[in-house]
Description:
This protein has 444 residues and is of the alpha+beta class. It has helices spanning 57-64, 76-83, 108-120, 126-145, 148-160, 174-179, 182-192, 208-219, 269-280, 286-294, 326-342, 347-363, 368-381, 391-397, 400-410, and strands at 2-9, 13-19, 25-30, 36-43, 87-92, 97-104, 198-204, 242-248, 254-261, 298-305, 312-320, 416-423.
Amino acid sequence: MTLIDRHPFGPRLTIEKHRLENGLSVLLLPDRAAPVVAYQTWFRVGSKHERAGRTGIAHLFEHLMFNRTERLAAGEFDRQLEAVGAEANAATWVDWTYYRNSAPARALPLLAELEAERMQHLVLEEEPLEAERQVVLNERRQRVDDDVEGFLAESLYRLAFGRHTYGHPTIGWQPDIEAISTGDARAFYRTFYAPNNATVVIVGDFEPPAALALLEARYGAIAPAPLVHPAPPEEPPQAVERRARFAKPVLGERAIFAYKTPPQSHDDWIPLLLLNEILVGGPSSRLYRELIIAREAATTVQGMVAPFSDPGLWEIFASMARGESATIAEEALDAQAALLAAEPPPADELQKVKNRLETEHWAQLDTADGKAEALGHHETTSGDHRRLFDVAARVEAVTLEDIRRVAATYLVREARTVVVAEPSGEEADDEDDDDDDDDDGEVA
């Protein structure tokens, strides 16, 4: 076990990074505010690492990881956690898959035992694979095929990324999910579920020397894998706007306007977060005030700047009121884009969104789970968990000219992708949307 780095986490906490001989990275943050522990394992594998024809395997594998191992019968993983009052879950996205456990601090030895067991001894057979395949196919039907916003998001990324594998839907294309074999699953497991492709994050009430000894005992003998992470094909610059419209069972049009953005590690990413707040960050944002309050033309406006390892998208979503066209939202967005590209926002408006963003940043770190997730995300996505500690300073350093510059640089129509759902005349799935005045426009 090698100590890589020790860094303060606020005025009273210290985070340590260690690495085992087999390449497993470990982040330890003792925090004795409560007798609990958050134990998370982050794997550097997501939908961008999949090959054509087998999309969805990263997400399917997230489900498979809760099945039988060589030592644990089916369902025993969950039963042992429930017996000590622990909770477990997992998530997959484009750059990563992670597994999270929340438990009383005394359960730390059990968490390490169970996670090390499924990292090296998962049993992959046809019966559990087929059962989880059906779960995922049903999830796809619910979240994409029968959900307008899920369908639009999937269509957006397919249209925006012609070469980069961010165009793969994380849940996978249906024919690909149906084609995944036990051989595919075993090869995927051997390739990506290795200690040298993972980071274990532990936050809570524990002693670091004891935790390190525990991890060495449980993980130290797991062999590393010969990792091959070829870079995804680079997406060429987009010079022509891409658009698509779909007839869907909605009362009012829904649209996503998406602009290409740099990766989360880029210096422009924080200014773009602030620009997003100015435009759609809550009830006092510009487009919320214009489209929802003043014109009553929309029921929802919100946005998200993708926190990805590679260049991604800034999505601005608008759900229009009954009978209103998404063109109204597009024209308002274009007008604000032109205004902000020509003239920086007032100083008090920028300070307001800085305050909002900084508050959200610190709020996510309130719990052991929140701290662990933020650390694991930055370590996996940006390659350095310490970038988490720079966020507040980077927010404060953004100038009015930075906002004007990123508006002029990234809010470019020619590099935009737009998808719209228009009423098909079928029974709508949003019967009450046009009467909903309670949506607060929070960033997704």
